[in-house]
Amino acid sequence: MTDFLTRVRAWLLDATGSMSATNEEAILTALLLIVVTGLIGGIAAKKLKQPLILGYILAGVLVGILFKTGFGEVANTAINSLANVGVALLLFSMGLEFSKKDIRPVFKVAVFGALAQVLFTFLAGTGIAWLLSRDPSVNFAGDTKIPLFSSNVSLFLFGICFVSTSTAVVLKTLSSKGFENSLSGRVMIGVSIVQDLTVMPLMLLVCQLGALSSSGGGLSSLMPLVLSTAFMALMLTVGARYLPKLTGRAARLESKELFLLSITAIALVSGAISVAMEVSFSFGAFLAGIVLSDSAYGRKALSELSSVRDFFAMLFFVSIGMMLDVHYLGAHWLLVGALVVLTGLARTTFLAAVTWIFKYRNVIPVAMLFGMFPTSEIAFVVIGTGLQDGFITTELYSLILCVVVCSMIAGPVINNLTVPVYSLLRRTVWRNLQSTGIVLPQPDLDGHMVLIGGGRISRVIAHVLIRLNLKYVIVEPSYDAYREAQAEGVNVIYGDPMSDVILNAARVGSAKVLVPMIPKLEESLAVVELARKVNPGIRTVMCAASPENEKRLSEENVDEIILSNFEVSLELTRRILVLNDISEARIQNYLDSVRASRYKPMLDGSPAFALAEKIRAFHGLIELRWTQIQPDSPLAGRSIEESRVRARTGMSIVGVVHDGEVDANPRPDTVLHVGDLIAAIGNEEQAAAFARLTHSAMAGSPESATTMTIPI
């Protein structure tokens, strides 16, 4: 077995790094190895219920052990370029996930608390770096003593690396436990996002000031700082105005492929422009994501980009694992371990204290202490930029890389301490702790209806739901239909309903009813399956255009099945019978019986169907009759109580229309006026007496009364 592995390793080394291998062979073989090991690492992490990122990093570590010298210059260059694209797309998607709506409920602690923590951790990290620089016993690599810190800038960059928590790891950990929408989860995510927003500007400022200092302070040295500031201002003003318009034009093409290309192009072009203006490639993509985050296309962009981003992010994290110097870690494991603990606690203890000060009690301070431990992936960008600009030595790069990777590996494990520690505190020192007075506001959507696709049909349903004060949201995959819905002022989300991002935005997890109206049946059923995974109790209503579709929907346990062609034929029948002067009562009774016989095989045995059958039987006994008050009617000018309609005829007035206003439940003191339409309930004999009462003697027989009968 050992000989076999040795031969495989030798073949891979020859294929990726030897002079005999072509550039294409080296790149393809290296990519193949990274993808396969990344897949294995991801599967292992999934089985162990850990974030996939950790599996990718450990897979990269394995590849790094096998290939100590890399894959060869050409392959290494290509993979590093793809990894840079990966981190840019990762930060672009993190920018897209930033939303003012997510921050607003926890604004004070997320913004002011996070900024205070960033300052504290930056100073603490810089202080740790200063102590390391003062102790020559740790300034070595192997047997040769080499200073870790080449300048004061490297001290500051060391502190910057540890001010932020890994948003990706926190999100994955929270979602795996179902806590992402809890108050503690929202605070953690909000703080993490604000941390990320501070890291890049802080890094740029330190690097530019370092360059300014090293160049002697001439006017020309100010140009990078001016350019980077101009780029950020440009993105937040001009970019915020025109980038959403560009994505809107791409969306109008109704092509997922072209929309994905346009989003990817925006991210990468923004990164390229940022490089030209003395800003890192990744930061340009990050700013572009922030600009698009609250636009109408932010969620769709995030959902469409996720698959491409995940692939390139896998390359990035595997490459990070490959760069981890295992021998350096083995030689300095005590130092690395101490820094993992110190830098992590410098962030989490302050966050726990801040949340307590902001009156977030119960589990939240404990969750901040143990859940915000993993250092952010943005630290890789910081050390990469510092190494490129000459502010960070290779030894310091290796040290920080080891600390960050180890903190990301330890993060999910440490987070598991939250529940037992909080339980212990509640049983002991926090036994009499009062519950926090701060609660997360209920989302706008809860117990609502989710309408998927449907175009005009969804909008008609939405307007009915609005009039009934029922909550709803439309998920519209068609851009034209989305724009029409926007113009009508209905609540609509643009995006692919088979995307987890879009379904989460529609809050399917708290929805009551799901109504997929996608033309392709299989796509509708796929949406139902995804929704049921998040919300097993959600009710479903779907249309069947054929007996085959009806059978399939029954097999999939759809709660309510509407036979669309059958319902159209019934409405056509009704219109035809009206033109043949058949009374509405006879038409409705006939259509009810036809509908009952057709749906009975589907609903037989259902309590709802049994109740509907009883109601239909009641229809023939009681009818709603409308009458208009004439000038000579004895009811004109009298209240319902004074007219004594029920005592004199047996009919009950249940509705009055006066001057266009409908009173569906009139009071006894309601006055009836000439021209009012009144609705009453009763049988045929009572209706005849009612007709005689509502007209003067000169009106003649009851048959001359102006009445219209409509079954209820």
Concise structural overview:
This protein has 712 residues and is an alpha/beta fold.
3D structure, described in words:
With 712 residues, this protein is α/β, with parallel strands linked by helices. It contains 30 helices and 13 strands. It has a 6-stranded parallel sheet, with helices on both faces. Strand 3 (449-453), helix 20 (456-467) and strand 4 (472-476) form a beta-alpha-beta unit. The protein starts with a helix and ends with a strand. Mean pLDDT is 77; it is low at 15-21, 140-144, 437-442, 615-621 and 696-712.
Sheet-strand content, in percent, reads 5-15%
Let me know the average pLDDT.
77
What spatial form do the alpha-carbon principal axes imply? elongated
Distance between the ends: 82 Å
Q: Describe the biggest sheet?
A: 6 strands, parallel
Count of helix runs: 30
Oligomeric description of these chains: single chain
Low-confidence stretches: 15-21, 140-144, 437-442, 615-621, 696-712
Q: What is the gyration radius calculated from CA atoms?
A: 35 Å
Q: How are the strands of the biggest sheet laid out side by side?
A: 5-4-3-6-7-8
Helix content: 55-70%
Write down how many β-strands occur, each being a DSSP E stretch of 2 or more residues.
13
Class by SSE composition: alpha/beta
